Amino acid sequence: MQVTTMTFTVEPCNQDTVIVRIGKALDFRNAAEFKSTCQTQVRSGARNFILDFSETGILDSTGLGSIFSLYRQVSPLEGQVVFAAVSRPVQVVVQLTRTYKVFRQFPSVDAAKEALV
Q1: H/E segment holding residue 58
Q2: Which of 64, 74, 100, 107 has the least C-beta neighbours within 10 A?
């Protein structure tokens, strides 16, 4: 069952992996909603998160902080947070912040699913 919040669409892959489609932006305006959405998924048993950035034009420090918060939440559960279909604007942020050292990146959501499932 697909769940859509105001900004994010969450699509389950299996009992412990979900795809979160980020949409146009992950920034100060919706980072709290992202955290809340992901916490709900963790409480429901998800521990692996595939973040789909294919349509994302904006990722700021607040958005990045919310991703790291999710990472800190699932790491003790042996979970993972991975990036998929990273758009050019997000790739610039990932390179500048060296976030690629923490989060694995995949060219597509399907490639990420194959690696995690």
Answers
A1: strand 58-59
A2: 107
